[in-house]
Structures are given as structure tokens and as C-alpha cells.
Write a structure and sequence with these properties.
Number of helices: 19
Distance between the termini: 120 Å
Strand order of the largest sheet: 3-2-1-4-7
Helix content: 25-40%
CATH class of the largest domain: Alpha Beta
Radius of gyration: 51 Å
Low-confidence stretches: 393-404, 425-433, 439-478, 480-520, 524-558
Mean pLDDT: 78
């Protein structure tokens, strides 16, 4: 059209039809016509093989199966089989049946580069799998492949696929795959005896001539088989191609060898113990049990017995029996795990909140046990956990309420401290038991420290043979023996009103005096040869500051 417009713009006066007719006569824009070729085959030279997917109905179910076909190129003798799968084992079974049907083998077998036969390469450079090459050599032929995309080279076998699909399945019913292939063989016999207009002959009559040129088959041809190694499961079955076959119960856990042929399945434990099954192709995941492998009546596994967890749940709480049954049907977890979790909830939580939560879950069809546990926890929160309004009137540190007098609290603390001190060898820093009893009525004081040299050992500190002096603040102990006592310098000082503040006490006596933390004031008198000081034990002042008389130098000690 565009060329016609440009020609008219340049002044040419011709119609569009005249332009296209001129182009056709001159071959402009036309693909050159190539005459169709014709392949001529001598009798017994070539047989062509190919596969094609078809839908068939077997046993009331529809399957997408593979139709394998083979045609002798001279006589047009047709043979085909239909299988749910077409693997290398199926290919060898089909070719074995084909050469037996033809009663001879051709010189070569043409394929279309199928991966079942080809190891690598295509066309003339194709190299077959060694297994398939050895199989073909035993039967007397060799594999050849045509170039990729050259479907005309295998036209003898391509056209009958449409004929098979349009005529064979129509109006037929197949009980099994064996029944299907039996009817297919009978249909091939009928078709091969019918007159063909395109060859103007009957294939069976031409085959009488070609049969004389076929290679004779071996006197004995071993049956095609495939070996499997399996271990018998705990139920007494072995699985082959997703189908389970039964064996004697005494074989459970033992290793067996399975020999798979076209129609049989032989399971061998040893040469004297062999079990034979009919080979099944579909449906998958089925069980095939022989009568002799079924347990005697009354000795089989009783599958109606409930789980132990279910028995415990229903026996303890019969009210939830309906919920347990619904959980087994609608729960997303494994039944045993779900029942085990429900039994745990029954044992760990009170009965009333548990029953209430289960009743609500059953009413709404809730079978998520994690959500069920949260529903139970919301019902027992006030019984098992402290609420915020309870903590406002409760002292978490002392375990008392604000209304209790602080004097009683301090008196109780002192009694506990004295009881702990009696279990030790002596009171800290040589404080006598009578001074502790005398100090109960004295007011609280301020913190002081215990001064000691860094060379004094921990044993000296414990026994009380230390000098009382001003605290050596912000000087960590350097003696290794003192460090081994694990005495800490960080302490907490607490006032009488209960408020805490952090202080520093480098006397390193916290571990020994930790039991006296936050105690009422305690007066400490010095021993002979020591200086009287106000002592702070574990960061807590025992008494208020006491005015001391001036010493000889006119200074107040400490």
C-alpha cells in the first residue's frame, strides 16, 4: 500500500491490484516455492519411533498419558502403547514389544532426539546412552536421529498420532492400563489389515514382503527389568513409584531387592524368600496388600483407640470432650501435638479459667491453642500477678505498706542482724554483743569509715584487730590478699526515711558487713590501743555524730 502511494505521488497511474499482480509475476516479496520431497525406504531398512501426549480415561479417571508409536517405513505396519509415564525403562519395554510384534528388527531406528535415548549431540552427531546402545545392539538395530526441526524426516510416525487420537479412545472404556494396551494391540491388528488409499495397499500384505528382510531376533531375549533397593517400613510395606506393596511382617526393618518388570514386581529378601505382586501404575499413593500378608482377624492394629492425651483430657475434664473432637478435625497442628498442648494447659492453669476459656473458644470455633492460652492468662491475671494499684500501697523493697511504722521495721531489721551475727565467729570490728543490745535506743548518726593500712590482711579485718580512723576515700585496695576477699567498695547508704543514695566507702568491708545494711544506729567503742571513731558499716550510719572531747593537740579526732 505504501509503495502504491509513493508511485502515485511520482505520477504513476496504475491500480493497487495491477501493482500486486506485477510483483507476483516477478517474484518480488514472494518466498521461493520448494517442491516437497519423498523419502524412499527399502524393506527392512528403517523403523521410526516417537511419543506424543494424549488424554485417556482409565478406571474412571482421566490421565495425561504418553503414546509411544513405532512404524515400519516400507509396509506402514503400526504398533503403539500408552503409559502414564515414559522413562528409559518404559522405552525399552516398548521397543521390546514392538520388535516382537514385527517379528524382527530393522537395520536402524529413527528417533527425534529424545533425552530418553540421546546422551549428547543431535542429528548425525547424536551419541546414544550406553545402556540404550547396548540394548539396541542385543536386538540387532542401531539408533539414528534426524536434525532438529526436520519433522518431515519422521513423517511416517508423526501422522498416525492424529489417527490414533481421533479413532482409538472414542467409545472405549478401559478398566486398567493392561486392559488399555490389550485393546490397543487388537486395534493395531485391525488397522494393519485395512486397505490404505494413500499407499494403495494393505499394510499386512506389504509386511509379508518386508518380513523377509528384517533381522531375526535372538533365540532368547531376557525380559526388561529395573532393580530397586528398599528397606521394609514399620507397617510391612515397600514403596515403588509412590505405590506401596506388602511383604511379610517378619521382614520389617530388613533390606530387600525389588525386580520390576512390565507386569510383575518381585520383592526378594533372599533366594528362598520372594514375594510377587502385580505391577500397578495408578493411582499413586495406594496400598496393595496380599491376602497372606494380612494379620489374622482380631490381631490387627486397632486404629479406633484414642490417643493417651485424649484419654487423659476426657477422663479429667469430661466437659471438653466435644471440643477435643472438634480440635482433632479442625486443628492445624498434628493431632498428637495439639492434644499434648491442651493437656499441658489443663495441668498448668486453674480449672475454672481453663473451662471458661475452652467454652468460649468452642462457641466461636477457635482451635488455635496459643490464643486459647492467652485467653486463660487474661482470666487468671488478677490471681497470679500484682496490679498497678496494689504496688502503689506496697513497698517492694521492704515488703511492707506505707502505714506500718518505720520504727518497727528498723527493730525487725536489727533483730535479724543480731541473729546473723551470732552465727559468725565475732561481731565485725570487735563489737561486743552487749553494745549491740545497748545501741537499740540511740538515734541514728552519720557515716564514718574504717581506716587501715593496705598491708593488713583480710584475716586481721575479720578478727577485729584493726585501727579505727578516718576513712581513706577514693583509694582502692592495692594488697592482693585484700582483693582476694572480694570486698567491694561501692555501697549504698540509706536514711531512716527509706530513701537511698549512692556513696563511696573504700574500707572494703561490704561483704562482711552486708548483713548489717540499713540498720538502726549502733554505738561502737574502740578497743585498747585504738582511736574512737564513728563507724559506717556497709554504707549505713549506726549513730549520729557525737561530740568528742579535744585531744592533747586541741583537735577533735576523726
Amino acid at each position: 500500500m505504501r509503495v502504491h502511494e509513493e508511485l502515485q505521488a511520482d505520477g504513476a497511474t496504475l491500480s493497487y491490484q495491477a501493482l500486486t499482480a506485477f510483483c507476483r509475476r516477478q517474484g518480488i516479496g514472494q518466498t521461493p516455492v520448494v517442491p516437497a520431497g519423498r523419502y524412499h525406504f527399502e524393506p527392512g531398512v528403517e523403523m521410526q519411533h516417537d511419543t506424543s501426549p494424549h488424554e485417556v480415561e482409565v478406571g474412571g479417571r482421566k490421565y495425561k498419558a504418553q503414546t509411544a508409536s513405532a512404524v515400519l517405513c516400507y509396509s506402514r505396519m503400526l504398533f503403539f502403547r500408552i503409559n502414564p509415564t515414559f522413562q528409559r525403562f518404559d522405552c525399552k519395554v516398548f521397543l521390546m514389544d514392538a520388535v516382537r510384534y514385527m517379528n524382527g528388527a530393522p537395520e536402524r531406528l529413527m528417533i527425534d532426539n529424545t533425552h530418553v535415548v540421546v546422551l549428547r549431540g543431535t542429528g548425525r552427531e547424536m551419541i546414544p546412552v550406553p545402556e540404550m546402545e547396548a540394548f539396541a545392539e542385543r536386538l540387532g538395530f542401531r539408533f539414528v536421529a534426524h536434525a532438529i526441526g526436520n519433522a518431515n524426516r519422521s513423517a511416517r510416525v508423526e501422522r498416525p498420532f492424529w489417527f490414533i487420537e481421533s479413532n482409538f479412545p472414542a467409545g472405549r472404556k478401559f478398566a486398567s492400563w493392561q486392559d488399555l494396551n490389550r485393546q490397543a494391540r487388537e486395534w493395531c491388528d485391525k488397522v494393519n489389515s485395512t486397505y490404505k488409499k494413500h499407499i494403495r495397499a494393505v499394510p499386512r500384505e506389504l509386511f509379508a514382503i518386508e518380513r523377509q528382510h528384517l533381522r531375526a531376533l535372538p533365540a532368547w531375549m531376557p525380559e526388561v527389568y529395573r532393580l530397586h533397593q528398599r528397606t521394609v517400613d514399620v507397617e510391612g510395606y515397600v514403596s515403588v513409584n509412590s505405590i506401596r506393596y506388602s511383604v511379610p511382617v517378619s521382614w520389617i526393618g530388613r533390606r530387600v531387592e525389588i525386580r520390576e518388570t512390565r507386569d510383575k514386581l518381585a520383592i526378594e529378601l533372599d533366594p528362598r524368600h520372594i514375594v510377587t505382586h502385580e505391577r500397578a501404575l495408578t493411582p499413586l499413593s495406594q496400598r496393595i496388600t496380599l491376602a497372606e500378608h494380612k494379620p489374622p482377624r482380631g490381631e490387627g492394629v486397632k486404629r479406633n483407640e484414642p490417643h493417651p492425651e485424649e484419654q487423659a483430657l476426657v477422663g479429667t475434664v469430661p466437659e471438653i470432650a466435644s471440643y477435643v473432637t472438634a480440635l482433632k478435625q479442625n486443628g492445624r497442628k498434628v493431632v498428637a501435638l495439639a492434644l499434648r498442648q491442651l493437656l499441658r494447659l489443663l495441668r498448668e492453669y486453674p480449672r475454672e479459667p481453663f473451662l471458661a476459656a475452652v467454652a468460649e473458644a468452642a462457641r466461636y470455633g477457635l482451635y488455635d491453642l496459643d490464643r486459647l492460652e492467652r485467653m486463660i492468662l487474661r482470666r487468671v491475671a488478677r490471681d497470679y500477678f500484682s496490679l498497678m494499684e496494689d504496688r502503689e500501697n506496697h513497698d517492694c523493697r521492704t515488703g511492707t505498706t506505707a502505714e506500718e511504722p518505720q520504727t518497727e521495721v528498723h527493730a525487725e531489721r536489727l533483730r535479724r542482724a543480731v541473729a546473723r551475727s551470732r552465727k559468725s565467729a565475732d561481731l565485725l570490728l570487735g563489737v561486743r554483743r552487749r553494745t549491740a543490745a545497748r545501741a537499740m535506743a540511740r538515734p541514728s548518726g552519720q557515716c564514718a569509715g574504717v581506716a587501715h593500712s593496705q598491708s593488713e590482711s583480710a584475716g586481721t579485718l575479720v578478727s577485729g584487730d584493726v585501727s579505727l580512723g578516718a576513712p581513706a576515700r577514693r583509694q582502692p585496695p592495692a594488697d592482693a590478699r585484700v582483693r582476694r576477699t572480694r570486698l567491694r567498695g561501692q555501697t549504698r547508704e540509706s536514711g531512716v526515711d527509706g530513701s537511698d543514695r549512692r556513696g563511696q566507702n573504700r574500707s572494703c568491708l561490704r561483704t562482711l558487713a552486708q548483713g548489717f545494711a540499713e540498720r538502726p544506729p549502733l554505738r561502737v567503742r574502740s578497743c585498747a590501743g585504738s582511736v574512737r571513731r564513728n563507724v559506717c558499716i556497709a554504707g549505713r550510719s549506726f549513730h549520729t555524730a557525737v561530740a568528742e572531747p579535744a585531744g592533747p593537740s586541741g583537735r577533735t579526732p576523726g
